[in-house]
Every structure is written in structure tokens, then in C-alpha cells.
Specification:
alpha/beta, Enzyme I, Chain A, domain 2, TIM Barrel, 2 domains, 8-stranded mixed β-sheet, 16 strands, 47% helix, globular, binds phosphoenolpyruvate, binds magnesium ion
Length: 568
């Protein structure tokens, strides 16, 4: 059976289905008859034993001194704690709770006790305790657990959704591909999947209930097809496509050491978007001229403990060293909406994408923000850092962030810690930011256009919604006009313009963006050589001509027609 989806991380994969059924840990709050209590205790003990053995298995490949191993040990200690088990049994016996209800109640009490201690470490552990409780409840209610770190070899995960934080826990050596019912090219999980080169399909309307674990799967994340239980002919076709993809990749290698320029020598800078330090290791493989976007929130998601000022300082210094003089653009923590950090307290909001996210979150958490700013300032003593703020709408937010930087400099001076100069930018990713740019440009050295959120907020269309993705694409007249307006405002103020949204990684848009006047593109590592190749096919005057034609088009289909016509 073939099901179409959106290919968000190109590649071909052959493997077996690992289906993640959506969690529905709905509890029954009725008190149980005394005759059932003994059975509930047995179920509880069995569930604890199952979880303990799963956790032990997942630790087999970890180094005993690694942070992850220590966290696993802490989970095991809690599950095997006799007092806790006693408390659970008492909740069943005395309060006539089901085993699941006893777990929910007792683990919530434990977590609250940890939060009351008011130390950052125990606050993080409180979240771990709650999620451990949820895993136990899931085993009790469904008999199975979605232990992501335990997936079998050659797994192709098929699920409704996977959060960026969950993606960070996946064993990538065993994961061949990913298929989600939700999301699109600009979802953060898609961005992580591309960074990790995991073939991924999103917005794929497959029925999870109809796919058994272990079913053979062929995933064509180039043309956007999930093939369940493929025929031999289909597998053979995909093997050919896989070979062609490998050959195309080899063909692109020739661009690695070539200048990023049009046929007639119009140069632009081509940098990379990264989410972790190990990606910086690979930038030389694709000839990137630096990092144009370091999504620092991802390093918070990958860790159970928040990196403190010193750890961040070391990390940024390591990044500078790896970059060897090439620029490092650090975006301050951009949390909220689909990016949650399990160890950070985030308020629950009705519309998180319109809530306390990006710069709003960091301004509301000055301690967290200052630690990052001080780390960046100190690292800037060792190399060129460009710092940018996400989701800035108006000059007041920028002024507040800049004032905090000054305060951090004072603190560093007082502590006699050295720091360096940084250049300042914002991600232009809301219509308000475009409209308000003139008031902010005098305070800025550069802007970087974030087309992912710019599209979401301009179109009022959730960037992860499978129902909206086709109808509200980034390549649409409104977005092109906002990009053009941002570029011309910035250029008039002599402020450098970059683009770090996923549109920069789309070769169909390369000529248009250059023609609109972009000086710098920051793209996903997987797309970098293709963009270089695309640019080399164009003459600058043709890029400008295409941009002029695009600016007077008022329909999405006509715009697509223009770009594909020029492209072929
Ligand atoms: C954007 O919104 O375009 C962007 C680059 O930021 P993110 O995708 O991380 O939200
Ligand atoms: Mg954004």
C-alpha cells in the first residue's frame, strides 16, 4: 500500500515499522472493590519489573560515566526504592486506588517534594519523575511502553508526532527513517531530522492502527511515498533511486571548494544552520563559510540538566575553535510553541505559538538569559560572534535585550572576567518585525530573515498543521513582498541581510532571493552544496529579472510556475 506524504528530509530507507501508538493515559478515578486490590498490586509489581528491565537494556550501550547513564541510574534507584514501592502498595490498599492511579498520585507527590526543595537539579528531576510515572502508567494501561531509546535495528518510526525533545533521545544508529502524521518542512522535528540525515516524511495520513510493528516498510522521502509491505519490484525501484541519490551527492562534491557565486561572479556568503556542536564538525565537508544560525535551544533539549554559564561558555569556545576564524551566529534560546524543554518550567497556554516564546520567554527569565549572554560575551573574547534574538516584534524588546547585555558586561567587569565585542542582529520572523524594522535598524548590525515563522505568523497558519501546509506555502506573494521589504529597509540603513529560514535551503528559490538582494544564505548542511550548484547556474541579471517578475505576481500557482519555468 502506498501513502503520500511530504518529504521533509530527503532520502530512501528500507526497514521495519516501529509504530508509536498515541499515548492515551486516561485514568479511571473510581475506587476499586477490595477483592481487586491484590490483583492491582501484582500488576504494579509486574509493570515496575518491566520498566526496570527496559531501562537496564537501554543503558547497555552507554558509558557508565556519561550523564545519560547517571540519569538512568537515578530512574532505576527510584523505581527500585522500597519505600516508594511500599507507598504505592499502601495507596492501593488503603485508598482503593487502581495501580495506575496509585502511580499517578504517588509520583506527583514525589515530584512536588522535589520542586519544594527549590534547587535547579531537583526541579529537573521532578520532571523526570513525572515522566517515569507516565511510562509506568502506560505499561499498566496498555501493556507496552514507547521507550524510544529501545527501538530495534532498522526501525522506521511511524507516529502521529514526535517532539524535538523526543527526537533528541532516539538512537540514530538504529533509526532508518521517520514517518509522522503531522508536520511539514519547517517543523522543528523536520529540521532535526534533516540535520541527522534521517529520511523523513511528514503530514502522512497513514492509519497507525493498521500497521503492525515489524511490517516491512519502504520509505521514499524524495518523491514523498510511504510503502507498507512493498513488493519486490517496489524495493528494487527504491534501491535504484537510492543509488542515484548517492551518485547525485558524489556529483555535488565538486562544489565543495568552489566560490559561492553566480556564473558571472556575483558572490554571496553561504553559511550553515546547526543545532549542536557535532554538526559544526561537518561544515568543512560541505565548504560552509561559517554558522549563520546556531539554534541554541536544541542543546537545552538534548540535556536533562540545563547547561550553565560556564558549560555554555566552553561550548561556544569549542564552536569558535572548530570554525577557525569563520563567523559563529548564535541565536539566543528560542523556546515555546513546538519547542519545549522538559527541564524548564513553561506555562501552559491556549495558543503557545502566540504565547511566551522566543525573546518573550528569555526576557521573562532574566537569570537564564543573562547566563547565556555572559557566556556569549566571554566566548567573544576568543573569536567573532554574531548574536541574534528570535521573535523580536518591536523596538522595546530589542532595547530590553540590549540593556541586559550591558548589565551582563558590568557583571563581568566586576568579576574581572574578560569579554569581547559582539555584533547584534534579530531574526525577522513576524510581520510586525518587518513593519517595525526602521525603528530597530539603528540598533542592529544585521538581520536574518526567518521565513518559517514569518510564513506561520503572516498566514496565521500553524507551521506544523498537516491541514494547512499546502495552502499557505512560503513561496507566496505576501511572503515574497515581506522579504523584499525587509531587504530594502535593511539595505537603506546599511545593515547586512541574511536569511536563515528553510526557504534559503530551497534551490527553487535561490535565484529569486539573490535577485531580491540577499547577501547571505544560511542553510541546512544537507542542502548546502545543492544551493551552491544552483547559484552557479545563474547569471546575476537573470536573478534580478526573476525577482522583478515575482514581485508583480499575485497568485501562488503563477509564482510556482515562474520559479519552476526558470529552474528547468
Ligand atoms: C524561522 O522561523 O525561520 C527560523 C529560522 O527559526 P526556527 O525555524 O528555529 O523557528
Ligand atoms: Mg523561528
Amino acid at each position: 500500500m502506498i501513502i503520500k506524504g511530504i518529504a521533509v528530509s530527503a532520502g530512501i530507507a528500507l526497514g521495519q515499522a516501529k509504530v508509536l501508538q498515541p499515548l492515551d493515559n486516561k485514568l479511571d478515578y473510581h475506587l476499586l472493590p477490595p477483592s481487586q486490590l491484590r490483583f492491582e498490586k501484582i500488576c504494579l509489581d509486574n509493570a515496575i519489573a518491566t520498566l526496570v528491565s527496559q531501562i537496564k537494556n537501554s543503558a547497555l550501550h552507554l558509558q557508565p560515566d556519561s550523564e545519560h547513564y547517571q540519569l538512568i541510574e537515578a530512574d532505576l534507584m527510584l523505581l527500585e526504592d522500597e519505600e516508594l514501592q511500599q507507598e504505592l502498595h499502601v495507596a492501593i490498599a488503603k485508598q482503593q486506588f487502581s495501580a495506575a492511579l496509585a502511580v499517578e498520585h504517588t509520583f506527583a507527590k514525589q515530584a512536588q517534594a522535589m520542586r519544594d526543595m527549590d534547587t535547579p537539579y531537583l526541579c529537573c528531576r521532578a520532571e523526570d519523575v513525572l515522566s517515569l510515572g507516565q511510562r509506568l502508567i502506560q505499561i499498566l494501561l496498555t501493556g507496552e511502553s514507547t521507550e524510544l531509546s529501545n527501538i530495534p535495528d532498522n526501525s522506521i518510526i511511524i507516529a502521529k508526532d514526535i517532539t524535538p525533545a523526543e527526537f533528541a533521545t532516539l538512537p540514530l544508529n538504529r533509526l532508518k527513517g521517520l514517518v509522522l502524521q503531522t508536520g511539514g518542512v519547517t517543523s522543528h522535528t523536520a529540521i532535526l531530522a534533516r540535520s541527522a540525515s534521517i529520511p523523513t516524511l511528514m503530514s502522512c495520513p497513514c492509519d497507525l492502527a493498521l500497521i503492525a510493528n515489524g511490517t516491512p516498510i519502504a520509505l521514499d522521502a524524495i518523491s514523498g511515498e510511504l510503502i507498507i509491505d512493498p513488493t519486490e519490484a517496489q524495493v528494487a525501484r527504491l534501491k535504484v533511486a537510492l543509488q542515484q541519490a548517492i551518485e547525485r551527492k558524489v556529483g555535488l562534491e565538486q562544489f565543495k571548494n568552489q566560490a559561492t557565486q553566480t556564473q558571472d561572479g556575483h558572490k554571496i556568503s553561504l553559511l550553515a544552520n546547526v543545532g549542536c556542536i557535532s554538526e559544526i564538525n561537518h561544515l568543512a565537508d560541505v565548504g560552509a563559510e561559517g554558522v549563520g544560525l546556531f539554534r541554541t535551544e536544541f542543546m537545552f533539549m538534548n540535556n536533562h540538566e540545563l547547561p550553565d554559564e560556564h558549560q555554555q561558555y566552553q561550548l561556544y569556545c569549542d564552536a569558535l575553535q572548530l570554525l577557525n576564524g569563520k563567523p559563529l551566529t548564535i541565536r539566543t534560546i528560542d523556546l515555546g510553541a513546538d519547542k519545549e524543554v522538559p527541564s524548564l518550567s513553561m506555562i501552559k497556554e491556549e495558543n503557545p505559538a502566540l504565547g511566551v516564546r522566543g525573546i518573550r520567554y528569555t526576557l521573562n527569565h532574566p537569570q537564564l538569559f543573562s547566563a547565556q549572554l555572559r557566556a556569549v560575551l566571554r566566548a567573544a573574547n576568543h573569536g567573532a560572534i554574531r548574536l541574534m534574538f528570535p521573535m523580536v516584534n518591536q523596538v522595546e524588546e530589542l532595547e530590553d535585550a540590549l540593556a541586559l547585555i550591558e548589565r551582563c558586561k558590568d557583571e563581568l567587569n566586576e568579576a574581572e572576567k574578560g569579554f569581547g565585542d559582539i555584533t547584534i542582529g534579530i531574526v525577522v520572523e513576524t510581520p510586525a518585525a518587518v513593519i517595525n524594522l526602521d525603528s530597530m535598524l539603528p540598533l542592529l548590525d544585521f538581520i536574518s530573515i526567518g521565513t518559517n515563522d514569518l510564513t506561520q505568523y503572516t498566514m496565521a497558519a500553524d507551521r506544523t498543521s498537516p491541514y494547512l501546509i499546502d495552502k499557505y506555502p512560503v513561496l507566496s506573494p505576501a511572503i515574497i513582498k515581506l522579504i523584499a521589504q525587509s531587504i530594502s529597509s535593511a539595505k537603506a540603513a546599511n545593515v547586512q541581510v541574511s536569511m536563515c529560514g528553510e526557504l534559503a535551503s530551497n534551490p527553487n528559490a535561490t535565484a529569486l532571493l539573490i535577485g531580491l538582494g540577499i547577501d547571505e544564505l544560511s542553510v541546512s548542511v544537507a542542502a548546502l552544496l545543492e544551493i551552491k550548484q544552483e547559484l552557479s547556474r545563474w547569471r546575476y541579471e537573470d536573478c534580478v529579472k526573476q525577482a522583478e517578475q515575482a514581485m508583480v505576481i499575485s497568485r501562488i500557482d503563477k509564482l510556482n510556475e515562474l520559479l519552476t519555468r526558470c529552474h528547468s
